[in-house]
Design goal:
By secondary structure, the protein is of the alpha/beta class. It is built from eleven helices and nine strands. The chain has a six-stranded parallel β-sheet, with helices on both faces. Strands 7-8-9 form a three-stranded antiparallel β-sheet, with helices on one face. Bound molecules: adenosine monophosphate.
Length: 277
């Protein structure tokens, strides 16, 4: 497995003849969910294809400097996971390698990012789109795997690929959960033992809510079950259309019940699909 830190070195690793190149973009601190994304990429690429994992904590998608500073960095174990899951190469650029000091162009999303996480994180999804576009161009990938856990991110990347005609197939990967239902996240490691024990209520609340017959009942059930905790604070809880993330008006179409819940300074997101009725 090759490991490169510069764009020039990466260029030297990209095959010149056509091969599937499948990218898994990450910010590192890899856990079993990331491992599963890499396995899926390996399967998609096939034996002749190339699987590239990028590990880059992208500063321009952080709206809070403290969040960027405290983001976990675990290079050694990240590389061990990439190797174990059959990645062909890892791209680990520095911030200076990725961004010129006087850079002046970004990719801006102006609709889907107004909702959910985007509503309270100005510039976050523009930072995501910009780095993902750069990674697509640098790796010349033909496909890329993204987790459904970050479903707003996935929806926005799909929109970017559609609107800008990127020749990249986007492969969604289902959310991977701990055995108690909590969605795996690098952020879970920052929970105190009490918060960690409490956090599975988020998924339980979404599950219970999704069984309710009406929109009001769904939102009320999830809110009551989450707010029953003294440790959890709801940042948002919304029922939206999956394709454009606008608030849902009736339950006749499939929808997404999504939330962000804060445990102290740790912000966890999760969602569930609801069936039409
Ligand atoms: P991150 O390093 O957190 O930016 O995540 C890198 C990729 O892994 C993104 O496509 C995420 O959606 C995906 N991912 C992270 N956690 C999970 C999870 N629990 N289940 C599925 N995909 C995930």
């Amino acid at each position: 497995m090759w490991i490169v830190e510069t764009k020039a070195a990466l260029r030297g690793k990209i095959p010149t003849a056509f091969h599937p190149i499948v990218l898994v973009p990450t910010m590192g601190a890899l856990h079993p969910a990331h491992a599963s994304l890499i396995r899926m990429a390996r399967k998609e690429a096939g034996p002749r294809g190339v699987v590239i994992v990028s590990i880059f904590v992208n500063p321009i998608q952080f709206d809070r400097p403290q969040d960027l500073k405290s983001y976990p960095r675990t290079r050694k174990s990240d590389l061990a996971i990439c190797l174990a899951e059959g990645a062909d190469g890892v791209f680990l650029p520095t911030v200076n390698e990725m961004y010129e000091e006087d850079r002046s162009i970004i990719i801006s999303e102006s609709s889907l990012s107004e909702h959910l996480c985007g509503a309270t994180r100005p510039g976050h999804f523009d930072g995501v789109c910009t780095v993902v576009a750069k990674l697509f161009l640098l790796t010349r990938c033909t496909a890329a795997v993204f987790g459904e856990k970050d479903f707003q991110q996935l929806a926005i990347i799909l929109r970017m690929v559609r609107d800008l005609d990127f020749p990249v197939e986007i492969i969604p990967h289902p959310t991977i959960r701990e055995s108690d239902g909590l969605a795996m996240s690098s952020r879970n490691a920052r929970l105190t033992p009490e918060q960690r024990a409490d956090a599975p209520r988020i998924w339980q609340a979404l599950l219970e809510a999704s069984r309710q017959p009406g929109i009001e009942g769904m939102l009320r059930t999830a809110r009551v079950m989450i707010e029953d905790s003294t440790l959890a604070t709801i940042e948002y809880l919304e029922l939206v259309y999956g394709h454009d993330l606008r608030p849902l008006r009736n339950l006749s179409t499939p929808a997404i019940l999504a939330c962000a819940v804060k445990y102290g300074s740790v912000r966890l997101i999760d969602h569930i699909r609801t069936l039409p009725r």
